[in-house]
């Protein structure tokens, strides 16, 4: 199947082997149907690139389906497939799941599988399950996007620095200069999308110098959240500050991804749960976060919320 990652330079590239997740699904009896659209190099919350164009939300085609796995979210919400696979570095499964009203799960990294929450959700959990609900102040969350960016620029556990994003854009075949690409984009001559160019510029400016203060905020948040969750607690957290925005609007609010991205840095399992449709007939939803290796807990709570609020709704229904 095609393996372009939304890059024009990878047009016609076909995978020679299955990724582990795909191989496991095939072994379990799944039949791959297609590779769906994504943002350029899977690093933006709109699924748009110069190779396959723009992907639309089945509930309102003027709006985005999210990203980076927005094509997958769109086809699943439309009933074109029953299950999909995506990446999730900063919310690339959970944002499309939210915008398209379907389930999405980001597992604990160590698993072998390789704002405000609506008050009725909390009340329902109290009434149906008898759980103890507590509103918890987590002031470190105000630094969510700083924490994500700081960790992305830091060396990994082996001491290796991350590959510069501009180098990934070149796909190993050419040098990409972000400022030059921005000038070309303004003239309509760049093969890259504006979000990818912007990310390359941010990456170049930030470099790989971690902030001591942000590192401290991350550690404090990690300890606090893990203490709160333990082995039997869940955190309900909004996936985004608003329902699916219209196309190209996210470029003006680029850090909204931090509502999902912060949990990648904390290494916690998260299930994005659909909660039916709102007044604009656009999907509503909530993130259910659990402690490390407690994936079964956030999945179980999400399943209960599905029963209580209706879960997925057919975008074509009157």
From TrEMBL:
GO cellular component: endomembrane system
PROSITE patterns xref list: AMIDASES (PS00571)
Pfam families on file: Amidase
Domain Amidase: 1-108
Highest taxon in the source lineage: Eukaryota
UniProt family annotation: Belongs to the amidase family.
Protein known as: Amidase domain-containing protein
Species for this entry: Scleropages formosus
């Amino acid at each position: 199947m095609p393996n372009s990652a939304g890059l024009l330079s990878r047009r016609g590239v076909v995978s020679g082997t299955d990724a582990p997740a795909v191989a496991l699904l095939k072994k379990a009896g799944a039949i791959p149907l297609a590779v769906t659209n994504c943002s350029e190099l899977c690093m933006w919350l709109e699924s748009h690139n110069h190779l396959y164009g723009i992907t639309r939300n089945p509930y309102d085609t003027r709006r985005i389906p999210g990203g980076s796995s927005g094509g997958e979210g769109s086809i699943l919400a439309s009933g074109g497939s029953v299950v999909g696979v995506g990446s999730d570095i900063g919310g690339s499964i959970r944002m499309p799941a939210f915008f398209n009203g379907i389930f999405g799960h980001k597992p604990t990294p160590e698993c072998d599988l390789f704002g405000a929450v609506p008050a009725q959700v909390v009340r329902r959990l109290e009434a149906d399950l008898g759980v103890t609900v507590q509103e918890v102040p987590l002031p470190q969350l105000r630094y969510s996007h700083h924490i994500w960016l700081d960790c992305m620029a830091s060396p990994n556990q082996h001491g290796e620095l991350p590959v510069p994003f501009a180098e990934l854009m070149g796909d190993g075949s050419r040098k990409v200069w972000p400022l030059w690409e921005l000038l070309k984009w303004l003239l309509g001559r760049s093969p890259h999308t504006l979000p990818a160019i912007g990310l390359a510029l941010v990456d170049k400016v930030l470099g790989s110098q971690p902030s001591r203060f942000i590192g401290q905020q991350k550690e404090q948040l990690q300890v606090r959240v893990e203490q709160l969750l333990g082995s039997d607690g869940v955190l309900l957290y909004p996936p985004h500050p608003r329902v699916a925005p219209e196309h190209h609007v996210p470029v003006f609010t680029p850090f909204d991804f931090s509502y999902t991205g912060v949990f990648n840095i904390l290494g916690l399992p998260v299930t994005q749960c659909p909660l039916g449709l709102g007044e604009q007939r656009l999907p509503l939803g909530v993130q259910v976060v659990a402690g490390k290796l407690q994936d079964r807990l956030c999945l179980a709570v999400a399943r209960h919320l599905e029963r209580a609020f209706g879960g997925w709704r057919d975008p074509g229904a009157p």
